[in-house]
Design brief:
about 130 residues, alpha+beta, Arylsulfatase, C-terminal domain, 2 domains, 4-stranded antiparallel sheet, 2 helices
Length: about 130
């Protein structure tokens, strides 16, 4: 399977870590949207598309973000688990909805995405 297209949308916000949103196409037949280029502690990396983990309100059963203290629908209190606020606990708030199964595929996708990101960033700086 080959990455046949990479579309990069640079982010112009105050968040210094998020650099771009990316859409990739495989074999001109399958699209994955909302990959993110992130500037991490060890340099740029690609984060896979993810969703926030939700919990059900004990009263009305509506879904709420995992760390909500009150239900967004009925306003009742939602008890929080006694987990400490660690970096790992915060990362667990999101789950990948599409991701490579092995390191070789992750490296291939990341190299294609970061190459396209760097080209787009150069174009932007050249036009300024």
């Amino acid at each position: 399977m080959d990455v046949t297209e990479v579309r990069v949308n640079l982010v112009e916000t105050g968040d210094a870590k998020l650099k771009a949103f990316v859409t990739i196409t495989f074999d001109n037949t399958f699209v994955v949207r909302d990959l993110k280029v992130i500037d991490g502690k060890k340099g740029l990396f690609v984060a896979m598309p993810s969703i926030k983990v939700m919990v059900s309100c004990p009263s009305c059963k509506k879904k709420n973000p995992i760390r909500s203290k009150f239900c967004n629908d009925c306003g009742n209190k939602i008890d929080q688990p006694s987990k400490p606020e660690t970096e790992e606990a915060i990362r667990e708030e999101h789950r990948d909805i599409a991701h490579p199964i092995n390191a070789q595929t992750r490296d291939y996708i990341q190299s294609k995405v970061l190459s396209a990101y760097e080209e787009e960033a150069k174009k932007k700086h050249a036009s300024v």
